[in-house]
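Please, structure for the following, as tokens.
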Amino acid sequence: MKKLLIYFLIVSSLLTTGCFFKQQSYNDTRFLMDTIISISTTGKDQASLKSTTDEAFIAFNDVADETDRYTSHNPNDLYALNQHNGQGAFAVGDHLYKLITMGKEEPYSAIEISLGPVIDLWRAHGENKTVPTDEEIKTALAKCGRDKFTLDKTNHTASLASDSSLDLGAIAKGYAVDYAASVITKNKAVTSALINAGGNIKVIGTKEDGSPWRIGIQDPRNAQKVLGVLALQNGQAIATSGDYQRYYEVNGVRYCHIIDPATGSPARNAISATAVSTSALTADFFSTLLFILPHDEAIAVVEKTPQLEAIIVNPEGEIYVSPGLQKIFTKEN
């Protein structure tokens, strides 16, 4: 009886400490939104992790399809809306309506979702390694602006002016990350997860050993190095915009893919801007905004915006780290 009691106590101890329930992990990587998307999950049941990860990718893909301006996926997507410009009200999908509403109502003019014509102009010139003329840029900018599109909340429709088109590149990926994360958090069997959409990252839960998630910030001028490492906690999200991700050069001048609506040309006030928040959408939006704004204005935005922290590298290579990150950012020597 004594031996049986000892055996029972040992088994109870093992169960209590979780030794019989070794944490499982599941990782999957796919190509969506013109970038590599990886989702890593941890929990006690491998089958549950796989099914949840698959569901998260389905959610991500739904947003990707609906916000793709270059390819048709369904009758209510962004491609279809842009093709319908100048023809009146058009019924759009739920994700698309939310993002267009955000683009219409957000207060910063440096983020403009109607820049489709300008983006197309630079994209065409980029293929030939040429630079648009001032007149070409002026003509394209004339087709942009928040007066070029309207929304009807009652009928869930959007209308575009003739020759206008929307581009949601500054916000769609972050929105997709949040949407995928909402699927993962519904499964209580998942104890932690990390979603990485080409640098748009959100962490869920805590690592098995209780340590924070360590996220490296790319050195914008050396692909083999990082500026430093951020220690993120449960629910935090991070996004980085930089002139090193997609660009071309003409006569030694770099032209990146992020357009300043004020000039119709690639932004040049920063070479990298990283935003940290509790929402991947918020981080995505502000990383773009902080990249476009003049350095002093960008810092002022960070300082006045609740739950926003940032790391900004100006063209001279000077690094600004906001006060809320200084204790959790370890700079590389």
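The chain has nine helices and 18 strands. The chain has two domains: 24-65+171-331, 78-160.
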